[in-house]
Write a structure and sequence with these properties.
Chain B: One of its GO terms (cellular component) is plasma membrane. The complex is a heterodimer. By secondary structure, chain A is of the alpha+beta class. Chain A is built from 14 helices and 21 strands. In chain B, 41% of the residues are buried. Chain B has 2 domains: 90 residues, no CATH class; 211 residues, MetI-like fold, CATH 1.10.3720.10. Classes of the chains: A alpha+beta, B mainly alpha.
Chain lengths: 510, 315
């Protein structure tokens, strides 16, 4: 066991004794993870193995404000519009003791691209070539200024080929991270990692982790309350205060790169009118929603990005709440309550809409209900339909909705192009409302190809302002993640660039 | 007798076959495209959108473009010809047989322990209640059984967690592997059938005690103990045996909810997880296993019935 203290007088002098400092770092951290552990191959489950189990690492890292920094690659530059050259860090060892070279990098990237269309798509990957032991060259299909951003994505983590057996099947992750894969119990789906004694960044505090997936938020709260886990995430929002007040437990809330938004169906008549879309947005009191529906877990949306993101448009304010202006915009659009029943009409027909919401994230259903009530106040009759996410996806695909609530991830790769392109481009795969505007498409393409960072972000800032004003989809609130930990867990630092959370190897558990 | 067993076995196979087709088709009828749901569960996260290319990739990988009859036929062919239940779509190509073999042991432990509780508590309390008919102990048992029958097992499970895990701290909330982990789910699962068995045993005992042959044994001057144990109980328990068989099936079905609440890694939990992630081979195989166990236990009980009561003849 890596964390044990040796008192064996006969042990040879060159045996280094790990971690003799205190027993407080000897215990494995029991971590109640959000999702069931379905697999741990980085090419498929990078988020789990790279961010939660911290066994593997990517070539590129990111700071708290989403700026790229060297990780397993020390530098990179674009040598032609479709070619990028990466210098691989010297002195990094895999968990099997073998040094990391350009060959393992090529092996990992080729494999990630082959295994998943999403990986291929993110990198726009054509090929990877080994130049020398510490240099690789990656060719993309089209000019791709955000290749380094894509290489930050955890699915592109670097593993040693010994992670696969002779038949080419993945057997265990051999990475370079602060934790080493120890075991996986197939029956209970419990994943155990131990400290990497030769971590290239230096000594690691945490002795290891026992990670169990607890998909039910109430069960996670019970588990930490009962002391079965030391650390967990996303407890029910209405439990945050109570849990935090319990002796020995503290709960903190952080913003993650995810935003609650409502997509608008542009195939339906009233929504092509910008005034109607703006009226709907103006009827929503985002501050009240965050305080009273989300119990303060989150923040009112200012735009589509969270403020920590380097590229977010800092000139945008919280989307305003002004029901009187909303009513006047509806009136301008021809909607007026003629018969005095409280519902506005146009051409004799009452303005009735449905709001579809999935039920999995606990904030969604009450938020949809609150928005429904707010819209009724400005004279729009609303029907709120809450269903399982698979059913709401069906409604979305069939374009059978007026408004649909989604908690969308906004940093699959740390660059604004990911959200702007997939949400707003006519063929973007997250353009749920089928908004189509060739001028906007051309501007997106132009911004996406821009290499100079300052110019690139300026273009995307302009695009963000444009979609903010056009109200193509309605952002409601930035997603808050709650981290509940026992007081015995010390030193955790939250990383907002991760999906939900990234575990911290510098934690200690007493 | 042999003819009867052959006929029952034929219908058993037919029922399993029908159940597997139904499970397979129903999963295709529920909302959410399979390829899309699988991609969301394994690749991008539940709420994030899946690109057309990913749907195509997943569909091609798992042959989801094939017509339904072919997909089902391939799975059935594998099961019948090679004993191969296919590979899971979600647990990254793990053989379904391996998932099932891991899940079936915890389920059997849970259902078996619950069954033991049902027998050990249900039968003695039922007999005791009948013997003490109308007395305060009988009334208490009857009220308790009515209440136990009325509470759904998931509610009982939550109350047990609240009292014995959170308040008293005696047992862990979730988990697997120790006796402490087993007690709460087994009790939650056993409570309802125990109450039913108590009522049935009580009624059956009272009925038996009213029979003429019991009056005859009293007239013969046999002791109360002899009358109860040698004459009444044996006959009163005949209908209970069938019911216990049926209840073993219900316990298996009940594990679907209880296993999920207590994170018990059995077949019920595997089934629920697989349904939500559209893991078609896992769902179909779990249904086949559950139906097979249910029907086999019932067949076994029916045959046992003949052993217990030789008057019963199967034609």
């Amino acid at each position: 066991m890596s964390g044990c203290t040796s008192t064996d007088k006969n042990s040879s002098s060159n045996v280094s004794v790990q971690n003799t400092s205190s027993s407080s770092t000897d215990r494995l951290l029991k971590f109640g993870e959000l999702w069931l552990i379905t697999g741990y191959d980085p090419a498929n489950n990078g988020v789990f193995i790279t961010e939660k189990a911290i066994v593997t690492e990517s070539l590129v890292g990111a700071t708290q404000d989403f700026q790229l920094v060297p990780l397993l690659a020390t530098s990179w530059n674009q040598t032609s519009p479709t070619t990028w050259r990466f210098t691989i860090r010297d002195g990094v060892k895999f968990h099997n003791g073998k040094p990391m070279t350009a060959h393992e990098v090529k092996f990992s990237l080729d494999r990630a691209a082959n295994i998943s269309a999403q990986n291929r798509q993110f990198m726009d990957f054509k090929s990877c070539k080994v130049i020398d032991d510490h240099t690789v060259e990656i060719e993309t299909n089209k000019p791709n200024p955000i290749l380094p951003h894509a290489l930050h994505y955890p699915n592109m983590a670097i593993i040693h080929p010994d992670s696969l057996n002779a038949q080419g099947n993945f057997i265990k992750p051999i990475g370079t991270g602060p934790m080493v894969f120890d075991s996986f119990d197939q029956q209970t789906r419990t994943f155990t990692v131990k400290k990497n004694p030769d971590y290239w960044k230096g000594p690691v505090n945490l002795s290891g982790m026992v990670i169990t997936g607890i998909p039910d938020s109430n069960a996670r709260a019970l588990s930490i309350e009962k002391g079965e886990v030391d650390f967990t995430v996303d407890v029910p929002m209405n439990e945050v205060k109570r849990l935090d007040e319990l002796p020995g437990i503290n709960v903190k809330t952080y913003l993650t790169p995810r935003v609650y938004r409502m997509a608008i169906n542009f195939n339906r008549t009233p929504f092509q009118d910008k005034r109607v879309r703006q009226a709907i947005s103006l009827a929503i009191n985002r501050t009240d929603i965050v305080n009273n529906v989300l119990y303060g877990v989150g923040a009112p949306a200012k735009g589509i990005f969270i403020p920590q993101m380097e590229w977010s448009n800092k000139n945008l304010d919280v989307l305003p709440y002004d029901p009187e202006k909303a009513k006047s915009l509806l009136k301008e659009a021809g909607y007026e309550d003629i018969n005095g029943d409280g519902i506005v009409e146009k051409d004799g027909k009452p303005f009735t809409i449905d709001i579809v919401s999935a039920q999995e994230r606990p904030g969604l259903p009450p938020m949809a209900e609150t928005i429904g009530a707010s819209l009724r106040k400005i004279g729009i009759d609303t029907k709120v339909e809450v269903m399982a996410s698979a059913a709401s996806t069906d409604r979305q695909n069939a374009m059978n909705f007026d408004l649909i609530m989604v908690p969308a991830n906004i940093a699959m790769i740390p660059d604004p192009s990911y959200v702007i392109e997939t949400w707003y481009r006519s063929d973007g795969y997250s353009n749920s409302g089928k908004y189509s505007n060739s001028t906007l498409d051309a501007l997106i393409d132009d911004a996406k190809q821009t290499i100079d960072k300052k110019e690139r972000y300026a273009k995307f800032n302009a695009l963000e302002a444009m979609v903010y004003d056009e109200m193509i989809c309605i952002p409601i609130a930035d997603y808050g993640v709650t981290i509940a930990q026992k007081d015995s867990v010390k030193g955790y630092v939250f990383d907002p660039t991760a999906h939900d959370l990234r575990m911290d190897a510098n934690m200690t558990v007493g | 007798m042999h003819h009867y067993i052959a006929k029952r076995l034929f219908f058993l196979v037919l029922t399993i076959f029908a159940a597997s087709i139904l499970a397979f088709l129903l999963l295709h009828a529920v909302p959410g495209g399979s390829a899309e749901t699988i991609a969301k569960h394994t690749l991008v996260g539940l709420e994030d959108d899946v690109s057309e290319q990913m749907i195509k990739d997943v569909s091609a990988k798992y042959n989801l473009f094939d017509p339904l009859w072919k997909q089902y036929g391939d799975w059935l062919g594998g099961v019948v010809l090679k004993g191969d239940f296919g590979t899971s779509f979600v647990y990254f190509d793990t053989p379904v047989a391996s998932l099932l073999s891991l899940a079936i042991v915890p389920t059997m432990i849970l259902a078996g322990t619950s069954m033991a509780l049902v027998i050990c508590l249900g039968i003695p309390l039922g007999i005791y209640s009948a013997i003490h008919e109308g007395k305060i102990s009988d009334i208490i048992i009857r009220v308790a059984t009515v209440l136990s029958i009325s509470f759904p097992s998931f509610w009982v499970a939550l109350i047990l967690i609240l009292i014995f895990s959170l308040t008293l701290g005696w047992f862990p909330v979730t988990g697997y592997g120790t006796i402490q982990n087993l007690i709460l789910p087994a009790v939650a699962l056993a409570l309802h059938p125990t109450a039913v068995i108590i009522r049935i045993v009580r009624t059956s005992m009272l009925e038996t005690l009213g029979q003429e042959y019991i009056t005859y044994t009293i007239a013969k001057g046999l002791s109360f103990r002899q009358i109860i144990w040698n004459h009444a109980v044996k006959n009163a328990l005949i209908p209970v045996i069938t019911l216990l068989g049926l209840y073993f099936g219900h316990l298996l079905a009940g594990t679907v909810i209880i296993e999920n609440i207590f994170a018990w890694p059995g077949i019920g939990k595997l089934l629920v997880d697989a349904v939500f992630s559209h893991d078609i081979p896992v769902v179909t195989s779990c249904i086949v296993v559950i139906v097979t166990i249910f029907l086999s236990v019932n067949l076994g009980v029916d045959l046992l019935y003949h052993v217990v009561d030789p008057r019963i003849r199967y034609e």
